[in-house]
Amino acid sequence: MLKAKSLYHLIVYSILFIIVLISFFTFIIIDNAHEELQEKIHTLKIDYTNNQKALIKNHVNYIINFIDYYYNQNKDTKSVETIQKEVIEAIEKLRITDNRNEYIFIYDFNGKVIQSSVAKENIGKNFLNVIDPNGKEVIKELINTSKKPFGGYVDYVWFKPEINKETNKVSYAKSYNRWNWTVGKGVYLDEIDKLVHIKEEEYNEKISNYTLQITSLTIMLILYSIFIYKNATILIVNDVKEIGKYFKESQKNDNPINQNRIIFGEFKVIANYATDAMNNIKLRTHMLEDLNKNLEYKVNEKTKELTNLIESQKQFIKNSVHEINTPLSIIQTNIDLLKMKIPNNKYITNIESGSKIIQYIYDDLSYLVKKDRVIYEKEYLDFTTILKNRLDFFDEIAKSNSLYFINSIEDDLYIKFNNTELQRIIDNNLSNAIKYSYAKSPIFVKLYYLNDDEIEFSVATNSQKIENTNKIFDDFYRENSARGGFGLGLKIVKDICDKNLVIIRLDSKEKETKFTYRFKINEDTTT
Question: Histidine kinase domain: which residues (predicted)?
Fold first, then answer.
């Protein structure tokens, strides 16, 4: 790598670099122009071909429509042979161009020429077995293609009288099934060579202009560099040295720079800025040292307070979870005893519903407390049985909210998953469905095989539309704060699904919301 030991060397290196750089860019510009030309030629060929295809297709469809219309108008008064003869005469007069290379041809399905504007001597002859230089049976392929519902195109090589040689041609053919006619029109593609030649001439002219402009620019830059080298370099170097000398001396004293020793006014301004900057730097350095010491002390104090607060919150949740378990078990046991003595009592049903809600909240809190300390191992689980059991658990809660479940659950669906995490996914979705459904509406629960590797679990409700679907899985977010809850349930679900590569899909409309979860049957990878 070249190292400039002085400004003089830098100017010389700059001139050499400019020459190399301009040569490099000249090559790039010419190369890009060539690539641009090739792209334009390619696009031109495609556009021209597509445009010609569209024109001949429109013309053929126009002729087909004309034939059908003429037949329907005269079928009751004239014979088919008379109508066909009049149609052929009309088609000859309906030519939309004077170009003798663009004409309508008609064959019957046996290959006999019915109409040919430019080769009338061929009318009545059979061309079914005619092949082009590439061995393609042209007429047979045109007839077969025309029998398709919308007709089609055929590419082949055909003799062009105008240039007295064979060239590429494309034709569109469509059948008129009532008379077993194949109606078609073709267009030669050699016209595109003329357009390509025009583009190549434009390219050569553009390259010549580029070369002239780049050469002129190179000469101007070199002359300008030499001027700078001769007239300004020495003066600039002297001013720079003077400013550098000041920075060295400012470390020992606070004397301002001597501006009489500087020539250029711009450098005098820089010198003033340098003096102010050095003074401000020294002043702010002392201020920052004092401020940093004060901030460091305050940050340490606040960090200790926040750490203690977080630990207190974690301990509170742990204690709360532990303390809830015993009285919750007592409540559930006594509810079971009351149900045995007083069955079908709505008050007991409401109490049981409330206790199950507490049980569901307890399970969520218990999972949050343990999830970072416990490894949830996977095993093969009977998803069908677990889902049915959880539906039984939430059935009383649904009834107390004037709701009911409609489920479609396939039997014997097994997946490799953790039981606790699977229950948290099911419980949070069922709980949210009960919480946000309209009264006296059904909750649709489905579980079924999607394919050999996946099963799908979904919960759909009649409820308000979720406006912020991107936030619904965030911590403490609740779409409707009036319905209670902590906003943690779907966050727990999202974390479990992400960890186990479960795909979540949320569809929410004006009166229906559906959560869908796609599980891998044998997924054994966690992220």
Answer: 319-523
